Amino acid sequence: MVGGACGSAEGVGGVRGEGRGEGRMGVRGGGCGSRFAVGPVFADINLGVGYMHSWAAGVIYQRTENGGVEKAANLGHPHFMPNASFRLGWDGSRRNDLPWTIHIGPEVYLQYPYNHIFLPHVAAKIGFTYKFKQR
Predict the structure, then answer these.
(1) Do 102 and 125 contact (CB within 8 A), yes or no?
(2) Is pLDDT at 92 greater than 80 in this prediction?
(3) Bond from prior residue into 113 cis (ω within 30 degrees of 0)
(4) pLDDT (0 to 100) of residue 135
(5) Does the first or last residue of the chain, that is N or C, have fewer Cβ atoms within 10 Å of its Cβ?
(6) Residue 29: which pLDDT band, with cuts at 50, 70 and 90?
(7) What was the pLDDT predicted at 8?
(8) Which string of DSSP letters, residue by residue, matches the chain?
């Protein structure tokens, strides 16, 4: 079985950049994907775009006109965030009438601009979905 869909917001997330001294928050959505299923086992391939906003983790200082130093506003930096993911999973509702699915897989996303380049990031997607309302 093959299925596909495009649109809708995928999620909102926040993360603290390890070793980079910054915090990030992103919104992903507007993606397209396909699901390939054989019985209860499935594979998802997804492509999407999103928005990431990053902030320095500490206080930012700037030079004043008279040569002194003062604290500066930390408004952060906006970033374009294209992403792709591949998930393998098991859907309990396909054969056993169980109202849940589990999945695991990698996600790759790019942060732009970052020093005028696309900075790649890799994340693990591990999930559990419980369906409250059955069809």
Answers:
(1) no
(2) yes
(3) yes
(4) 62
(5) C
(6) low
(7) 40
(8) -EEEEEEEEEEEEEEEETTTTEEEEEEEEEEEEEEEEETTEEEEEEEEEEEEEEEESS-EEEE-TTS-EEEE----EEEE--EEEEEEEEETTTTS--SEEEEEEEEEEEEEEETTEEEEEEEEEEEEEE-SS--
